[in-house]
Every structure is written in C-alpha cells, then in structure tokens.
Design goal:
about 160 residues, mainly alpha, Four Helix Bundle (Hemerythrin (Met), subunit A), about 55% helix
Length: about 160
C-alpha cells in the first residue's frame, strides 16, 4: 500500500490572514503564559499535546480547533482538581456548572470571572454536543492563555 505524502507546507489559509506571513509570525499568536512549576503534573501532561496541536496549527489549521476543544476540557480538569483538594467533603462526580458555582460561593472568583467561566462552559458544551462542525479562529488561541492563567492561579 502506498503511503500518503506528508505536507509540511503552511496551511493555505495563512495567505489570507493579515500579519501571518511565516511560522515566526504565527508563533506570536501562540499562548504566552507558561504553566508554573506548581501546576499539577497531570494538568501539565494534559497541556503537552494541546501545545503541539497549536504549533502544528500553522500546517493544519483545524489543529487550532482541536487544541481549543481540548483546552476547554482541561479547564474542567483544573477546576475539579482544585475543588477535590480544597473541599472538605467533595462530591466525586460534580458537573462543570456546579464547580463554577462552588468557586463563586467560596469567593475564589468574582462575578465577571464566573460569567467568563460560564461562557467557556457553554463553548465546551457546544463542542461536546455539536450540531455542526465549528472551526475556531486564530484569536481563539488567546482564550487558551486565559485557561493557562487559571491553571497557574489554582495550582
């Protein structure tokens, strides 16, 4: 069986994106936040393939969407791990909405942050229960930066 040739050329979409003319330009859009050494090893391990998907997004644009989707799942992992180590009597099975409410009730987040987390929860739900294929834009990578900041804050 003949193997398919691997294309290591930039995705053609970059021809239409102002400001991205090379991989060096593209790297400026990648998350700037670095996970701190205090972040749980499980979360660091979960982020590794997300980081790689983002890098390879220059070659295959759909990888950005895959990275974004996985980062939204990682967000729930971040919140759940913090909840489990902080709550004296934690529920082992707790929904993301309940986690957001727990963080709010315990004054770990303010109202604006609660609304942001709720918005991210809705995005996560739309990927978990799709009605159509969604493709994220290059700007969605900035949301992954927010999730990394949350990981650093709750480590």
């Amino acid at each position: 069986m003949a193997s398919k040739k691997v294309c290591l050329e930039p995705h053609p979409i970059w021809d239409y994106v102002i400001g991205i003319n090379s991989f060096e330009d593209y790297k400026n859009y990648l998350p700037m936040t670095i996970l701190s050494e205090n972040v749980d090893d499980e979360i660091k391990a979960y982020y590794q393939p997300i980081s790689k998907l983002l890098e390879f997004g220059y070659l295959e644009y759909s990888f950005i969407t895959l990275a974004f989707r996985n980062a939204l799942i990682m967000l729930e992992l971040i919140l759940k791990r913090y909840y489990l180590k902080s709550e004296p009597n934690p529920k082992q099975k707790i929904m993301l909405n309940d986690l957001i409410e727990w963080f709010s009730a315990n004054k770990l987040i303010n109202e604006q942050q609660r609304q942001q987390l709720s918005m991210l929860k809705e995005l996560r739900n739309s990927y978990s229960h799709p009605s159509q294929n969604s493709v994220m834009t290059i700007q969605s990578i900035k949301v992954i930066d927010v999730i990394l900041i949350i990981a650093n804050n709750f480590s």
